[in-house]
Structures are given as structure tokens and as C-alpha cells.
Design goal:
globular, alpha/beta, 37% helix
Length: 272
């Protein structure tokens, strides 16, 4: 067993073999991400290796803040555009129609997933019962975006409920000193696996990213050849992911890490 610590957050990993990902992430996998385009950054190459990928987009991708949707005319127009971009990107990866949780529950708005965890979980539980995945792939708890962190928690709960291994990928976060970290876990355990992306996979991944025109050049921030995964570590979801300010606090969004982790603690307590 290995242990690492970032700020006040201890991450303790369980035992695993280095070859597990080749079995667990290439079979029937439920890929749980927060927004259309997260799947591309975190799992774009791996998606094409999965025998059967069920991609779940947990939010509508359209924050209430006019800053995000002004140039598209309305929040509803932006929401619909993001859903269509996600569908086209999935086609590029050879994946079936993505499952969009917000289409069944309008409360699952971008930036609001942590306030509606039980509603999202009910849908995910029913979906997992039907799909019976051999593994779950989701995002790390890293304080980059509250919706990413919410997916980490929901993925953990599904894994516990169904006895399915959960894997995670990092997107972006801030370290304790506030520096931006891209595609690197805040808390490294030594069990991370760097996926070697082939030229063919790289081409498909770039084609997927190109479908997200609404995001401007944001996806170019990330290294398309970089995909890092590991078995999900054990998190204390009732605590902030690290001692410093989270990325969304530094961006001055409306929620705080304390508010987010308090909702996480309520969800964990109800699940026990």
C-alpha cells in the first residue's frame, strides 16, 4: 500500500497490478464525465480501445453565467449546441449515443451537480443496472471544477454499490501554491499509468476535439498525446482536495470548496 499527501488531503491507494488497466479499461466500460469534451481530454484514446463504451455526460454543459453563453444567444441554445457537439465527437470515436443525464433532469446544470448528487445518482444507478459495466472510468477529485469532483464521488459510489473497479484521470487543478496543473494528479501514488497513444488514436482524438468548436481554443491547452489513469484512490470527500484555494475559487466562481465538500459529506453519510 502506498500513501501520498497534498495539503490536508491524504490519498491512500489499494493494491493493483500494472496490467489491470489493459483488461478493465478495454472491456465494457461506463465512462462518467461532467461535460461534453471531458471524455476527449481524459479518455479520448482509451475510448477507441474499449469493446463497449457507455459515455455518460452528467451535466448540461451550460452554466447560468451569461459569460459562457452570451455569443450563442441564450443559455438554452448553448446547452443544445454542447449536446450536439458531444454526439458528433462520440461518433468520431466509434461510441454509441452518449447518455445525457440533464435531458432527463433539468436540475443537472453545469456548476450545479454537487447540489443534485442524489438525482444524478438515481439515474446512474439505473443505468449501471442495465449496462453492467466491467469497469467505471471517471475524473479525479482535484478541485479543478466542482462538476469533475462530483463525478469522482458518484463514480466511487457506483463502484461501491456494484463492486466494479473505478479508474480515474486528471484534467486540471491548482496546487497548494496556486500553479495550474494539467493532466497530472495532485496526489501521485506511483501507480499511475501513462497510456501510449498511437498515431491513429491521436488523429481520432484530435478529430473529436475539433467537434467542440464552442470551446474555442480551450482544448488546445491540453496535450492530446497525454492520457494518464490509475485505480481511483480513497478520498475524504468531506474535506477539500487540498489546503490551498481550488481552481474554481481562484476563478471566483459562486461556490466555495467548503460548500462543495459539505454537500459531498451529506451524500456519503446518506449512502452508508
Amino acid at each position: 500500500m502506498s500513501e501520498a499527501k497534498v495539503g490536508a488531503k491524504a490519498c491512500i491507494s489499494g493494491f493493483m497490478s500494472w496490467g489491470d488497466w489493459k483488461l478493465e479499461l478495454t472491456g465494457r466500460v461506463l465512462v462518467l464525465v461532467a461535460h461534453a469534451d471531458d471524455e476527449c481530454v481524459g479518455f479520448g484514446a482509451l475510448l477507441t480501445r474499449m469493446r463497449e463504451a457507455c459515455v455518460v455526460i452528467a451535466t448540461d454543459g451550460a452554466p447560468r453565467d451569461e459569460y459562457f453563453w452570451r455569443r450563442f444567444g441564450s443559455r438554452d441554445a448553448y446547452r443544445k449546441l454542447r449536446a450536439e457537439e458531444g454526439r458528433r465527437a462520440m461518433q468520431r470515436a466509434g461510441v454509441r449515443e452518449p447518455v445525457l443525464l440533464a435531458e432527463a433532469d433539468g436540475r443537472l446544470e453545469d456548476q450545479h451537480l454537487f447540489l443534485n448528487l442524489e438525482a444524478a445518482y438515481r439515474q446512474l444507478e439505473a443505468l449501471t443496472e442495465r449496462v453492467r459495466p466491467e469497469a467505471i472510468a471517471t475524473l479525479a477529485y482535484e478541485g479543478g471544477h466542482p462538476d469533475h469532483d462530483s463525478c469522482s464521488l458518484l463514480g466511487w459510489r457506483l463502484g461501491e454499490r456494484f463492486g466494479v473497479p473505478v479508474w480515474e484521470a486528471p484534467l486540471y487543478s491548482r496546487g497548494g501554491a496556486g500553479e495550474m496543473r494539467l493532466q497530472r494528479f495532485l496526489c501521485e501514488t506511483g501507480e499511475e499509468v501513462a497510456i501510449k497513444v498511437s498515431e491513429a488514436e491521436l488523429g481520432r482524438k484530435r478529430a473529436m476535439c475539433a467537434e467542440y468548436a464552442s470551446q474555442g481554443d480551450f482544448l488546445q491547452t491540453f496535450d492530446a498525446q497525454c492520457e494518464v489513469v490509475r485505480r481511483q484512490v480513497r478520498y475524504e470527500y468531506g474535506e477539500a482536495p487540498h489546503e490551498g484555494k481550488t481552481n474554481y475559487e481562484l476563478w471566483q466562481w459562486w461556490m466555495s470548496a467548503r460548500e462543495v465538500s459539505a454537500k459531498f459529506a451529506e451524500f456519503v453519510k446518506a449512502a452508508r
